[in-house]
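Please, structure for the following, as tokens.
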Amino acid sequence: MTHIKLHHSTDPTEPSVKYEWLADKVTLNAGSINIKVNVVSQGTEHPEEILLEQDILSKEVDLGSYNLIKGIAKNTGGYYVATTLQLAAPKEIGILGRNKRTILLGPKEVKETYWIIRVSDHLNPNYWYTFPAVIYSEKNVSVADEFKVQLHSPHYSENDVRQLIVTNEDKSYSRRVSISCKLPKELFLNESKEINCTLKNSGNSNLNQVNFCVGGICETVDLPINQQYSTKIKPKTNKVGWNKLIASAENQLIDKKVAFDYAVMDAPKIKANSLYPESIHFGDNFKINLIINKTSFSNPKNIEITIKGGGVEQSIFLEELKEPQNLSMEVRGDRISKNNRYELTMSWKDQSGKSYSNSREIFVKGIGDTFAERIKMMVNGMIGLFQ
């Protein structure tokens, strides 16, 4: 029960409760309407006619990236039903355009609607985040999903996601069509690799004159019931970083669009900035501080940093370099000579195991405050000549 009838009238403007009096200077204190209800009988709960599903374009995106959330509403009843859908997301997620969507569904009909969202670019780049997204109706039917946000993940512009929005929501047969591409997650720069993309009809209707496009290359195909069609294409690998391969299929019954992410890898490179004193007094230990960072899209792996000279050798090992690292190596001051030369060597590998390296020299002047210290520095220098 949702309503209690107070009055029956053919005039909708006529009030259910009306007060009248004939007098001057009358103060009327109206009380509340007291209603007592006795439950005579109780029926069964009527199930919600609308079923909801959700599909997120990319399960992992970069800071500041756009993303696309698709809401799918299905009418399970044999009659027309209207529903209003909204998207709930954390404050770090901005929703472009109107949030509230009112959809009219025919008997057994399925329709899709889309929300373009944007991730804040003010998140801490040293962390990764998992954000929930909930689509809900006015009758509290809801469906939830989530996606990950991490620096250097696939990045979508607003134009990218708008290309993937289906403009004709009435082509519900699109749900019975799938597009798949056997695309590696990583390809090397300028690598020529042929991949296979397949369009499949899993429905109960023949599809004729389907415009099937992959990566901007299109062809017209007929797709009978429960059949599939495959084509081969070479993804573009001339741009380092995250790339997208967009595939689509369209005719009078379907409008399907899908995006596939893949990374084009370059040769990993490391840049090192060093900070150390120009001179050091004998006996005083000193530090060589390093700030290392990758200057490539690819992450250097199995990194070994070695400093050698003055009778000392130290090494630091890193499994992978994703973000800048501050490193420090301490050198003993009782091993220094008048002129100290240290060799800083860095070696690393790429994802295929290929090795890379570079080196530089560091010079530090030694100062002896006493005659004995200067003698010891001279001996250290002679020892260094033979090492």
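The chain has three domains: 47-157, 166-265, 270-386. The mean pLDDT is 89.
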